[in-house]
Design goal:
This protein has eleven helices and 13 strands.
C-alpha cells in the first residue's frame, strides 16, 4: 500500500510514518519540520496550494492519503481567521479533491472541538456545535471531505499527546506540540503549573491514534469515527497522572479554573468522546489513560530524561 502522509513532520505524522514504513511504501509532505524519511520520499508542500497538491498526487499516486496537517493553535485560529480557514478548510478540500481524482482513500484527522462541550461522551451522530473558530474550521473541513471524496474516514481524536524530542516541540504557530510534553518540560525545570479542573476530554496517545488510522486505512469502513483514548478526565487529572508517571511531585500541579486563564478562544467544557462505534466496527479496544501513559513514560525515559 502506497501511503502519503500530509503533515509528516508533526507529532501524529511522525508516528504514522514510524509505523507505516514497516509495511507500506510511505511518502510524506511537510511545511516547516522535515519528516524522518528518505529524502526522495519527502516533499515540501503547502496544502492550500491547489495546483501543488494536484501535481504531487499525480507524481506519487497514493492509494491512501492521511491528512494530519492543520493550524491546531486554538487561540491563534481565533485571531487569524482567514489563515485558519485557508489551511484547515480549503487545504483539506484540496486534498479531498486530489483523492477523488486519483481514486485514493482519504483519512482526515479532525477534532473533539467540533462539539460545544455541553454534555460530554459524544457519539459520532451527536450534533456538532463548535464554540471557537478552530472547531468551526475543522467541522467545515469535515463537510468538505464528505462532500468531495466518497472513500473517506473522518477521525476525531481528543487532546493528542506523545513523547517528542525537545528539538521538535513547537509548532509553526508557536503552540507546544502537545500538552504532555509542555507539562513535562515545565516540571523538569522546577516550574509550578496551574491546570484547569473544569475542562474534560479523552486524551489520545499519538502512537495509538496512528495505529488506528492505519488499521482503518486497510479496512473498507467509511464515515466518521471517534478515535480517542478510553478514559474521560479533566486536564488537571490528566496533568497529575502525567506528573506521577514521570516521577515528578504531584504537588507541583496546582488546580485552577477556565475563567482564571482568560484564554482568547472559548473552550468546550466537556468534549470527551464515546469510542463504542470504532471498538465495535474494528473489533479493537482503545487503551485506558494509565496504559497509554505507561507507553508515554517509557519513551520519555528512553529519550534520556531523568
Amino acid at each position: 500500500m502506497r501511503v502519503l502522509v500530509i503533515g509528516g513532520g508533526g507529532q501524529l505524522g511522525t508516528k504514522i510514518i514510524e509505523q507505516a514504513k514497516e509495511r507500506s511504501e510511505v511518502y510524506a509532505t511537510y511545511l516547516t519540520r522535515k519528516p524522518f524519511l528518505n529524502d526522495s520520499k519527502i516533499f515540501m508542500m503547502d496544502k492550500t496550494n491547489r495546483e501543488r497538491v494536484m501535481a504531487l498526487f499525480r507524481n506519487v499516486k497514493p492509494k491512501v492519503a492521511i491528512d494530519t496537517a492543520a493550524l491546531h493553535n486554538v487561540d491563534y485560529c481565533e485571531t487569524h481567521r482567514d489563515e485558519a480557514w485557508n489551511v484547515n478548510v480549503e487545504g483539506a478540500r484540496n486534498v479531498a479533491e486530489a483523492c477523488k481524482n486519483h481514486d485514493a482513500r482519504m483519512m482526515f484527522v479532525s477534532t473533539d472541538y467540533v462539539f460545544d462541550g455541553a454534555k460530554g461522551s459524544y457519539a459520532e451522530d451527536d450534533d456538532a456545535n463548535p464554540v471557537n473558530y478552530y472547531g468551526l474550521t475543522k467541522l467545515e473541513a469535515e463537510k468538505a471531505v464528505a462532500e468531495t471524496c466518497g472513500n473517506y474516514v473522518i477521525a476525531r481524536p481528543s487532546v493528542i499527546y506523545s513523547y517528542v524530542p525537545s528539538i521538535r516541540q513547537e509548532s509553526s504557530s508557536g503552540k507546544p506540540l502537545n500538552f504532555a510534553m509542555w507539562l513535562a518540560q515545565r516540571l523538569k525545570n522546577g516550574e509550578p503549573v496551574k491546570i484547569v479542573t473544569d475542562q474534560y476530554g479523552s486524551p489520545t496517545l499519538a502512537d495509538d491514534l496512528a495505529e488506528i488510522l492505519l488499521k482503518m486505512a486497510d479496512s473498507e469502513k467509511t464515515g466518521t469515527y471517534h478515535t480517542a483514548g478510553r478514559t474521560r478526565l479533566s486536564r488537571y487529572e490528566f496533568a497529575v497522572k502525567i506528573a506521577k508517571k514521570l516521577n515528578f511531585e504531584e504537588g507541583s500541579v496546582a488546580p485552577t479554573t477556565t475563567d482564571q486563564l482568560k484564554q482568547v478562544a472559548e473552550r468546550p467544557m466537556d468534549s470527551s468522546l464515546s469510542i463504542e462505534k470504532i471498538e465495535k466496527d474494528l473489533a479493537l479496544r482503545m487503551p485506558t489513560i494509565d496504559e497509554a501513559l505507561d507507553e508515554f513514560a517509557k519513551q520519555f525515559f528512553a529519550g534520556g530524561n531523568p
